[in-house]
Protein backbone atom coordinates (compact mmCIF):
# COMPACT_ATOMS: atom_id res chain seq x y z
CA UNK A 1 0.00 0.00 0.00
CA UNK A 2 1.38 3.38 -0.98
CA UNK A 3 2.14 5.74 1.87
CA UNK A 4 0.30 9.10 1.85
CA UNK A 5 2.24 12.00 0.39
CA UNK A 6 0.08 14.80 1.77
CA UNK A 7 -1.55 15.70 5.08
CA UNK A 8 -3.88 18.28 6.53
CA UNK A 9 -1.88 20.32 9.03
CA UNK A 10 -2.58 23.24 11.35
CA UNK A 11 0.02 25.97 11.58
CA UNK A 12 0.08 28.61 14.32
CA UNK A 13 1.25 31.81 12.68
CA UNK A 14 1.28 35.24 14.27
CA UNK A 15 -1.30 34.13 16.82
CA UNK A 16 -3.72 32.63 14.30
CA UNK A 17 -4.43 29.03 13.35
CA UNK A 18 -4.31 28.04 9.69
CA UNK A 19 -5.47 24.57 8.64
CA UNK A 20 -4.46 23.47 5.16
CA UNK A 21 -3.60 20.37 3.14
CA UNK A 22 0.06 20.22 2.14
CA UNK A 23 2.28 17.94 0.12
CA UNK A 24 4.82 16.57 2.59
CA UNK A 25 7.62 18.16 0.54
CA UNK A 26 6.27 21.69 0.99
CA UNK A 27 8.66 23.94 2.86
CA UNK A 28 7.44 26.31 5.54
CA UNK A 29 8.57 29.15 3.27
CA UNK A 30 6.40 28.00 0.37
CA UNK A 31 3.46 27.36 2.70
CA UNK A 32 3.73 30.91 4.04
CA UNK A 33 4.14 32.60 0.68
CA UNK A 34 2.22 30.43 -1.77
CA UNK A 35 -0.52 28.97 0.37
CA UNK A 36 -1.18 31.55 3.08
CA UNK A 37 -0.31 34.73 1.17
CA UNK A 38 2.16 35.83 3.86
CA UNK A 39 4.61 37.22 1.34
CA UNK A 40 6.59 39.35 3.79
CA UNK A 41 8.92 36.38 4.24
CA UNK A 42 11.22 36.44 1.23
CA UNK A 43 12.79 33.70 -0.87
CA UNK A 44 16.40 34.39 -1.77
CA UNK A 45 18.56 31.32 -2.26
CA UNK A 46 16.03 28.65 -1.19
CA UNK A 47 18.90 26.62 0.23
CA UNK A 48 19.63 28.05 3.66
CA UNK A 49 22.44 30.41 2.77
CA UNK A 50 21.07 33.97 2.60
CA UNK A 51 18.72 34.37 5.57
CA UNK A 52 16.05 36.20 3.54
CA UNK A 53 13.42 33.71 4.71
CA UNK A 54 14.21 33.99 8.45
CA UNK A 55 11.19 33.65 10.73
CA UNK A 56 10.85 32.92 14.44
CA UNK A 57 9.74 29.47 15.60
CA UNK A 58 8.90 29.47 19.31
CA UNK A 59 10.99 32.62 19.55
CA UNK A 60 14.05 31.09 17.88
CA UNK A 61 15.19 32.28 14.48
CA UNK A 62 15.08 29.73 11.73
CA UNK A 63 15.30 29.72 7.94
CA UNK A 64 11.89 28.75 6.59
CA UNK A 65 13.29 27.36 3.33
CA UNK A 66 14.98 24.51 5.19
CA UNK A 67 12.01 23.56 7.33
CA UNK A 68 9.14 21.44 6.11
CA UNK A 69 5.69 22.83 6.80
CA UNK A 70 4.66 19.55 8.42
CA UNK A 71 7.54 19.92 10.89
CA UNK A 72 6.30 23.37 11.89
CA UNK A 73 3.03 22.01 13.25
CA UNK A 74 2.71 22.72 16.96
CA UNK A 75 5.25 25.53 16.91
CA UNK A 76 4.40 29.22 17.22
CA UNK A 77 5.64 30.82 14.02
CA UNK A 78 6.20 34.57 13.89
CA UNK A 79 6.75 36.25 10.55
CA UNK A 80 7.50 39.87 9.76
CA UNK A 81 3.73 40.44 9.54
CA UNK A 82 3.44 39.51 13.21
CA UNK A 83 6.29 41.33 14.95
CA UNK A 84 4.57 44.70 15.42
CA UNK A 85 2.36 45.28 18.43
CA UNK A 86 -0.83 46.36 16.73
CA UNK A 87 -0.09 49.77 15.24
CA UNK A 88 3.21 50.11 17.09
CA UNK A 89 6.29 48.89 15.27
CA UNK A 90 8.65 46.51 17.01
CA UNK A 91 11.73 48.40 18.28
CA UNK A 92 13.86 46.60 15.68
CA UNK A 93 11.49 47.65 12.89
CA UNK A 94 11.53 51.23 14.16
CA UNK A 95 15.32 51.31 14.31
CA UNK A 96 15.65 49.97 10.75
CA UNK A 97 13.20 52.66 9.62
CA UNK A 98 14.88 55.48 11.53
CA UNK A 99 18.43 54.57 10.50
CA UNK A 100 17.79 53.44 6.91
CA UNK A 101 18.78 49.84 7.61
CA UNK A 102 17.96 48.85 4.04
CA UNK A 103 18.14 49.89 0.42
CA UNK A 104 15.91 47.72 -1.81
CA UNK A 105 14.36 46.11 1.28
CA UNK A 106 14.29 42.55 -0.01
CA UNK A 107 16.45 41.16 2.79
CA UNK A 108 14.87 43.38 5.44
CA UNK A 109 12.10 41.10 6.78
CA UNK A 110 14.68 38.38 7.34
CA UNK A 111 17.15 40.84 8.87
CA UNK A 112 14.52 42.12 11.29
CA UNK A 113 13.27 38.67 12.34
CA UNK A 114 16.87 37.52 12.72
CA UNK A 115 17.76 40.57 14.81
CA UNK A 116 14.78 39.96 17.11
CA UNK A 117 15.88 36.36 17.62
CA UNK A 118 19.50 37.39 18.02
CA UNK A 119 18.70 39.97 20.71
CA UNK A 120 16.79 37.30 22.61
CA UNK A 121 19.74 34.91 22.33
CA UNK A 122 22.09 37.62 23.60
CA UNK A 123 19.76 38.51 26.46
CA UNK A 124 19.70 34.82 27.43
CA UNK A 125 23.50 34.89 27.69
CA UNK A 126 24.38 32.98 24.55
CA UNK A 127 27.91 33.69 23.26
CA UNK A 128 28.94 34.08 19.63
CA UNK A 129 32.12 33.23 17.77
CA UNK A 130 33.21 36.83 18.38
CA UNK A 131 32.80 36.59 22.16
CA UNK A 132 36.04 36.59 24.08
CA UNK A 133 34.80 34.43 26.95
CA UNK A 134 32.35 31.69 25.98
CA UNK A 135 32.20 29.89 29.33
CA UNK A 136 28.58 29.35 30.44
CA UNK A 137 29.21 31.33 33.63
CA UNK A 138 30.52 34.35 31.71
CA UNK A 139 28.21 37.28 31.12
CA UNK A 140 27.20 37.84 27.52
CA UNK A 141 29.68 40.04 25.71
CA UNK A 142 28.47 43.61 25.07
CA UNK A 143 26.77 43.99 21.71
CA UNK A 144 29.62 45.73 19.95
CA UNK A 145 29.56 46.19 16.18
CA UNK A 146 31.82 43.13 15.90
CA UNK A 147 29.40 41.05 18.00
CA UNK A 148 26.41 42.23 15.95
CA UNK A 149 28.17 41.51 12.66
CA UNK A 150 29.05 38.00 13.79
CA UNK A 151 25.63 37.26 15.24
CA UNK A 152 23.89 38.57 12.10
CA UNK A 153 26.31 36.90 9.68
CA UNK A 154 23.66 34.46 8.47
CA UNK A 155 21.71 37.30 6.86
CA UNK A 156 23.14 38.58 3.61
CA UNK A 157 22.30 41.90 1.98
CA UNK A 158 22.89 42.21 -1.75
CA UNK A 159 22.66 46.01 -1.41
CA UNK A 160 25.41 45.85 1.21
CA UNK A 161 23.54 48.05 3.67
CA UNK A 162 25.49 46.45 6.47
CA UNK A 163 26.70 49.62 8.16
CA UNK A 164 23.15 50.90 8.64
CA UNK A 165 21.89 47.43 9.60
CA UNK A 166 24.49 47.17 12.38
CA UNK A 167 23.60 50.66 13.62
CA UNK A 168 19.89 49.79 13.63
CA UNK A 169 20.42 46.56 15.53
CA UNK A 170 22.64 48.36 18.04
CA UNK A 171 19.99 51.00 18.64
CA UNK A 172 17.27 48.36 19.00
CA UNK A 173 19.43 46.45 21.47
CA UNK A 174 19.14 49.28 23.93
CA UNK A 175 15.37 49.44 23.66
CA UNK A 176 14.70 45.74 23.50
CA UNK A 177 16.96 44.07 26.04
CA UNK A 178 14.28 43.60 28.69
CA UNK A 179 11.61 42.07 26.45
CA UNK A 180 14.10 39.92 24.58
CA UNK A 181 15.03 38.03 27.74
CA UNK A 182 11.51 36.67 28.00
CA UNK A 183 11.47 35.16 24.51
CA UNK A 184 14.32 32.65 24.60
CA UNK A 185 15.13 30.20 27.41
CA UNK A 186 18.43 30.46 29.26
CA UNK A 187 21.52 29.11 27.56
CA UNK A 188 21.25 25.35 27.20
CA UNK A 189 24.52 24.53 25.49
CA UNK A 190 22.94 24.29 22.03
CA UNK A 191 24.84 25.76 19.13
CA UNK A 192 23.71 29.21 18.11
CA UNK A 193 22.58 29.36 14.49
S1 LIG B 1 15.83 31.69 1.09
FE1 LIG B 1 16.10 30.64 2.93
S2 LIG B 1 18.15 31.03 3.50
FE2 LIG B 1 17.96 31.93 1.52
S1 LIG C 1 18.45 46.04 1.31
FE1 LIG C 1 18.59 45.16 -0.70
S2 LIG C 1 19.23 43.13 -0.30
FE2 LIG C 1 19.40 44.11 1.62
Automatic annotation (TrEMBL):
<dbReference type="Pfam" id="PF01799">
    <property type="entry name" value="Fer2_2"/>
</dbReference>
<keyword id="KW-0560">Oxidoreductase</keyword>
<keyword id="KW-0479">Metal-binding</keyword>
<dbReference type="InterPro" id="IPR006058">
    <property type="entry name" value="2Fe2S_fd_BS"/>
</dbReference>
<comment type="pathway">
    <text>Alkaloid degradation; nicotine degradation.</text>
</comment>
<dbReference type="GO" id="GO:0046872">
    <property type="term" value="F:metal ion binding"/>
</dbReference>
<keyword id="KW-0408">Iron</keyword>
<dbReference type="Pfam" id="PF00111">
    <property type="entry name" value="Fer2"/>
</dbReference>
<dbReference type="InterPro" id="IPR012675">
    <property type="entry name" value="Beta-grasp_dom_sf"/>
</dbReference>
<dbReference type="InterPro" id="IPR052914">
    <property type="entry name" value="Aldehyde_Oxdr_Iron-Sulfur"/>
</dbReference>
<dbReference type="InterPro" id="IPR036010">
    <property type="entry name" value="2Fe-2S_ferredoxin-like_sf"/>
</dbReference>
<protein>
    <submittedName>
        <fullName>Xanthine dehydrogenase</fullName>
    </submittedName>
</protein>
<dbReference type="GO" id="GO:0051537">
    <property type="term" value="F:2 iron, 2 sulfur cluster binding"/>
</dbReference>
<dbReference type="InterPro" id="IPR036884">
    <property type="entry name" value="2Fe-2S-bd_dom_sf"/>
</dbReference>
<dbReference type="InterPro" id="IPR002888">
    <property type="entry name" value="2Fe-2S-bd"/>
</dbReference>
<keyword id="KW-0001">2Fe-2S</keyword>
<dbReference type="InterPro" id="IPR001041">
    <property type="entry name" value="2Fe-2S_ferredoxin-type"/>
</dbReference>
<keyword id="KW-0411">Iron-sulfur</keyword>
<feature type="domain" description="2Fe-2S ferredoxin-type">
    <location>
        <begin position="7"/>
        <end position="83"/>
    </location>
</feature>
<dbReference type="GO" id="GO:0016903">
    <property type="term" value="F:oxidoreductase activity, acting on the aldehyde or oxo group of donors"/>
</dbReference>
Amino acid sequence: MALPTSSVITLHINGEKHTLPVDHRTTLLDALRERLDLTGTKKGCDQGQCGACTVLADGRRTVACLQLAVAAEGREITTIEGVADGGRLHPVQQAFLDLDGYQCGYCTPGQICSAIGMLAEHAAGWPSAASGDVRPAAAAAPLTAEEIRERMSGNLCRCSAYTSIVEAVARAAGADAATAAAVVPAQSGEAVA
